[in-house]
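Re: [ENG-882] Designed sequences occasionally contain unexpected residues at chain ends

Forwarding the minimal case from QA. Structure tokens:
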């Protein structure tokens, strides 16, 4: 198991290029199940989650060519016999649930393991299942598997809402199912996230009829057949935001290239409120840190609000702000697992329900910490780069799920970060452990 060892206090500067969006590419890969022609996907990031989704598709009969160097995936699903997505593969990643809609639409049957539990809180799939039922599927949950069947999906008017607002992957699943249904589907309260828009754009290129893309109401008119396409996924806004916060938290000057600033306006606005100097153009954002951050309030919301996937990283920065910041998490019930680890570095954070109250401190100090989820791990890396002394972040496989070679790219910006295998601890950690 790898760990990162970080010597804090290095100011990041320079330019970094953003890769393709993880949360776009995973559902788009599932869309390959909707056609027997080849789907070519470009700008595919080299991530553990992409490798896991490849395995899920292969278990469903897909032939996959993956050129990791070029970031190109070629997927063809002409063997339509398999319908089971097994637990061993589904447990590693929630996005694998996106195969349900395409399987039902094209193969009329699906046996898909419930995706595994997750440390960021209970993440049900009731809305996905309700959506499929409203399109005419019979659904049974048995022995950990969703067993779904239909003679033919039929368009319907449906509302997909949770107490947190819309559902991103639920929208993706229902839209994909509706593309091959009979008649029109009206999907109210659909998610507006850029990754949903990217998926819808791919589906339209494949021959689907979808109106209202990017709005809260999607109208999908079913077609008989979809065909293969060639598509480059959008830039990863969360990766871009993470690098921008990395520049700011280290007192640096970082330009993030190849991104889509319009997808990050809520972050840009909050960083500016925290006294960070942010400028941007068509496809770049430049972040220059102030001498001291101002405390701010932040509420995570569905897009275009502040993304929950940047909450942990911004929290790391607010640990160093002047005064008290409030961070309200509105998407997940319990996405504060990084708080305990930030405490180990000297942060002062109090949790009250789904709010974190952060009292800024003058400095953080390096410590051994444990990554427990993807974005929380990114926050620990950022905090480690800003802290005095050495930080060792254990279990970085979480970070490798969603950031391509983040250590190498941070090093190019001036960070002192090394990847080590966990059973060979750095000398300073051995000394600190007293043994
Ligand atoms: C997507 O997850 C992303 N994952 C998440 O990114 C992201 O945090 C989330 O959207 C919100 O933006 C991928 O795209 C692969 P939701 P998703 O359904 O679609 C509740 C990351 O770090 N809900 O929009 O699974 C749910 O519990 C990951 O990259 C139900 O109640 O999230 C949550 O409170 C983590 N029933 C809220 O809705 C359902 O059936 C929003 O979840 C579905 C969701």
């Amino acid at each position: 198991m790898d760990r990162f060892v970080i010597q804090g206090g290095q100011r990041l500067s320079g330019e970094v290029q953003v890769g393709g969006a993880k949360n776009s590419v995973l559902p788009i890969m599932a869309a390959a199940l909707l056609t027997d022609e080849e789907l070519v996907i470009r700008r595919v990031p080299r991530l553990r989650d992409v490798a896991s989704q490849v395995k899920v598709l292969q278990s469903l009969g897909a032939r996959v060519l993956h050129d990791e160097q070029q970031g190109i995936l070629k997927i063809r699903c002409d063997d339509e016999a398999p319908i089971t997505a097994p637990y061993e593969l589904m447990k590693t990643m929630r996005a694998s649930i996106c195969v349900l809609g395409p399987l039902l639409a094209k193969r009329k049957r699906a046996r898909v393991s419930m995706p595994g539990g997750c440390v960021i809180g209970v993440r049900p799939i009731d809305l996905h299942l309700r959506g499929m039922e409203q399109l005419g599927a019979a659904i049974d949950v048995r022995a950990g598997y969703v067993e779904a069947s239909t003679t033919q999906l039929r368009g319907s008017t449906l509302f997909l809402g949770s107490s947190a607002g819309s559902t991103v992957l639920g929208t993706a699943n229902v839209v994909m199912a509706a593309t091959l249904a009979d008649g029109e589907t009206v999907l109210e309260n659909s998610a507006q996230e850029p990754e949903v828009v990217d998926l819808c754009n791919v589906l339209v290129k494949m021959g689907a009829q979808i109106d209202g893309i990017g709005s809260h109401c999607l109208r999908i008119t079913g077609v008989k057949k979809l065909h293969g396409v060639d598509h480059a996924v959008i830039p990863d806004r969360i990766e871009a935001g993470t690098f921008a916060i990395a520049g700011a938290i280290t007192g640096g000057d970082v330009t993030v290239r190849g991104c889509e600033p319009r997808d990050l306006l809520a972050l840009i606005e909050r960083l500016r409120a925290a006294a960070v100097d942010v400028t941007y153009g068509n496809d770049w954002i430049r972040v220059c840190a102030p001498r001291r951050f101002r405390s701010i309030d932040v509420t995570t919301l569905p897009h275009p609000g502040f993304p929950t996937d940047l909450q942990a990283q911004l929290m790391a920065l607010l640990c160093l702000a002047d005064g008290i910041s409030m961070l309200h998490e509105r998407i997940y019930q319990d996405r504060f697992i990084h708080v305990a680890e930030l405490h180990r570095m000297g942060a002062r954070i109090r949790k009250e329900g789904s709010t974190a109250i952060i009292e800024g401190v003058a400095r953080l100090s390096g410590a051994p910490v444990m990554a427990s989820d993807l974005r929380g791990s990114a926050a620990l890396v950022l905090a480690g780069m800003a802290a005095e002394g050495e930080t060792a972040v254990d279990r970085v496989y979480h970070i490798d799920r969603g950031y391509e070679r983040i250590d190498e790219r941070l090093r190019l910006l001036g960070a002192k970060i090394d990847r080590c295998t966990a059973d060979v601890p750095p000398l300073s950690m051995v000394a600190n452990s007293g043994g």
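QA comment: On inspection the terminal residues look reasonable. The chain has a mean pLDDT of 94. Proposing we downgrade this to a documentation issue.
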